[in-house]
């Protein structure tokens, strides 16, 4: 049986879907393989991925709250809402470490902290 899957590009691709056809149909559908050793390893790796994702979400929320506090503190003291030189430093750090994706990530982080302009 064939099924549609959405690739990371967002476009539709076709792939074999063997879920439910073998003795381990459900496990195959969950992990994408019917090799039990590979499936076991995938499940273990996914546990760590889920842990990392939870940490990223927590840190994301903490950063946004801190950034909002800095902005509120500065504005309450008569300062500016933004400090563009600081934003440039942050963008450059993320670009240096992560390349073009880092720049995009830093833009999202900054947006989360300061809200819409
Ligand atoms: O560091 C500051 O001064 C902040 O206000 C925090 C922050 C940020 O999210 O990192 C947000 C807005 C500023 O323009 C610069 C940086």
TrEMBL record:
Domain Chorismate mutase, chain residue ranges per copy: 36-117
Biological processes per GO annotation: chorismate metabolic process
Biased composition (Polar residues): 1-11
Region (Disordered): 1-37
MF annotations from Gene Ontology: chorismate mutase activity
InterPro entries, sorted: Chorismate_II_sf, Chorismate_mutase_highGC-bac, CM_dom_sf, CM_II_prokaryot
Protein name: Chorismate mutase
Superkingdom of origin: Bacteria
